[in-house]
Target: Delta(14)-sterol reductase
Amino acid sequence: MAEKTTKAWRNDTLSVQRSQYGGPWFPKVIFILGRLATGPIQYAILSQHPLQRFGIPAPPSGGFITLRGLDLPRLPLIAVLMPTVLSLKHSLWASMMMSESMTTPFALFGVCSDLIVESINTFLFTAASVNPLWSERLFYIGATLHFAGIAIELLAELQRLAFKSKPENKGKLCTTGFWAITRHINYSANVLFGFGYGLSTGGPLYTPVSAGIYLSNFIYNAIPSIEEYCEMKYGEAWQRYVEKVPSKLIPGIY
Model:
């Protein structure tokens, strides 16, 4: 069994270093600072509206929100808040919830890949006024799904953290609460907020692309690796969990 597990998750600098704790602090600092930069970057893209040089008008405002005397357009503000709130969740995870070691390549890849995806979404939103399939109603539905996905992932991680913090649960699997829905409910939540984000910014045709980015990564990369690791670490307890919760990612489908 130990020989089998060396292939999928060990010595992979672009993944979480499972069973390796501590490590250098600067990769996490790079990750946190990089993720926190996405809010100002997305705001800059929206405020500068680079697509206007091609004759594309500013995205719909959806009305204005008054904050301390400043009138801010509602929809662009929400469009910036979506990646900003997600970056805060990522920063919380890296600083307080992640006990494993983080590598510099992982930190840089995580920052750059998320920034690229979020910037593409922001650019798509700046073209919302000329997107015939985009609508304000779909924007709000997508934003709701996006924030719900972030909340589910955060609550699931907190639930697992609370479970692991109890001495009697040392070395045990957390299989209750959100973790009784799918074996990787945190990834399920990622698909949900990716779906919602794409629906808000690019409309229904872009939504499968946005959600598909997450699905392909989890199905072909992350899930096989972590399933192999958990089978090695937990043994029969993992097999019982697989029988109890057959869905890896999407309840009743996969």
Residues 26 and 68 are 37 Å apart (CA to CA). The first strand starts at residue 17 and ends at 21. Confidence is low (pLDDT under 50) at residues 1-9. The chain has one domain: 2-244.
